[in-house]
Design a protein that fits this description.
35% of the residues lie in helices and 18% in strands. It is α/β, with parallel strands linked by helices.
């Protein structure tokens, strides 16, 4: 099964990273809403290698087939066939170092997630998503960025 990689330059679908994108971290983005999947993938594709999946089953196949490290699973919370929680549970069993960020417009209140998992409420703006992800997968870079953000006294 081929995996789509998005970066600044178009790449051929593959289970291996092309040499020119090996220095970028990889994120697996999963959403059963094609427009959200496309938009989030496009936003993240400038800075990361993005593996796209439109279902939990497809995401598990990508995770199994992809030979390099996947730094982050970014998944919708509610999807047909498999929830984001079930997907994250299965992927973290295979890839214990992967970070988990679940997103949803969940209206029923607070969600209880496994320790170390994170939640992002929809709707969100692209800069909010990028800063959150940078903080999760590159905390040293994020803390340097935060130190340069002016604060009100």
């Amino acid at each position: 099964m081929a995996i789509k990689l998005l970066s600044k330059e178009p790449q051929m679908a593959t289970t291996e990273l092309a040499p020119e994108v090996q220095d970028k971290k990889t994120i697996l983005v999963v959403d059963d809403d094609a427009s959200i999947l496309g938009t989030v993938s496009d936003v993240l594709g400038r800075d990361y290698n993005v593996l796209r999946a439109s279902s939990g089953k497809e995401a598990l196949e990508h995770s199994k087939d992809f030979k390099s490290e996947i730094c982050l699973l970014l998944s919708d919370f509610q999807m047909a066939g498999m929830s984001g929680i079930d997907l994250a549970t299965q992927i973290t069993a295979e890839r214990p170092k992967i970070k988990v960020l679940l997103m949803s417009g969940y209206p029923a209140g607070m969600l209880v997630l496994n320790e170390g998992w994170h939640f992002l409420a929809k709707p969100f703006i692209p800069s909010q998503l990028r800063v959150l992800i940078e903080g999760l997968i590159s905390p040293d870079k994020a803390s340097r960025f935060a130190a340069h953000v002016p604060t009100k006294n």
